Amino acid sequence: MTRYTVTLTLVLAVLWLLLSGMWTHPIILPLGAASVALTVWLSHRLDIVDRESDPVHLVVPSIKYWPWLLGQILRANLQVARRILGNPRDLSPRMARVRLTQQSDLGRSIFANSITLTPGTVTIRVAEREILYYAISEDLVAELDEGEMDRRVTRLEKEL
Amino acid sequence: MALAIEIASWVLLMSGSALLLIGGIGLIRFPDFYSRVQAAGLTDTLCSIFILTGLMLQADSVPLAAKILFTLLFLLFTGPTASHALAKTAHHDGLRPWKRNDGGASSNR
Known about the structure:
The structure holds 2 protein chains of 2 kinds. Chain A folds into 2 domains: 3-46; 58-159, no CATH class. Chain A is 61% helix and 11% strand. Chain A is built from 6 helices and 3 strands, in the order αααβαββαα. Chain A has a 3-stranded antiparallel β-sheet. The two termini of chain A are 22 Å apart. By secondary structure, chain B is an all-alpha fold. In chain B, α1 (2-29) runs antiparallel to α2 (33-58) and α2 (33-58) runs antiparallel to α3 (62-92). Chain B is elongated.
């Protein structure tokens, strides 16, 4: 029993309970337990119970990062909404590049996804040291160049 | 307490609907492909967050609220992937972003 077996069992059990809603049923509940046990056993036979398939270590760092990201999404949404209701021809869209300081593919994809998730910017291409993205206006480019998002994702990556 | 939840739920649902509408207007008003993807991003992100959180407050059981939460999480993970795939394909095909004095052509390959 590794710790990944324990966490996988817990995650599956909680997921089953939440999706079924049958918390006290005398027949369905044991069937649920059996299906969780079967899934864990099969995953063991397939040898896929490891850090990558069961990324519980991501949970705590993500919970620290998401509130900030949600704030950014809120701000970006209001900015884009203002542009839509104002003069939509008043845009200064362009492709731009931003440096990234993450070391791992996971860190880079979190950064790239964060850029896309905030309206107004969308990631086009990710390279080793930089991201090519489209921004709807010049001030969004300046904001990303300032680098707070990159710093926060790198800090998140170090906690993993 | 029930009244407070009801009010919060309706505020979220109404602002989500307003964002959906604004996103739709942006989809028509914005000048080119890339900027329209951004307008659609409005409905992908804050609009779904507002509407689904509002619906979560309306849910009368934990499993129902959990299912809505899972829906929201999946949307937040798949939305950017779709936007990125669209933008990357357009870029790959050589579509250039709109410039102010292009005279309104939405595509100038």
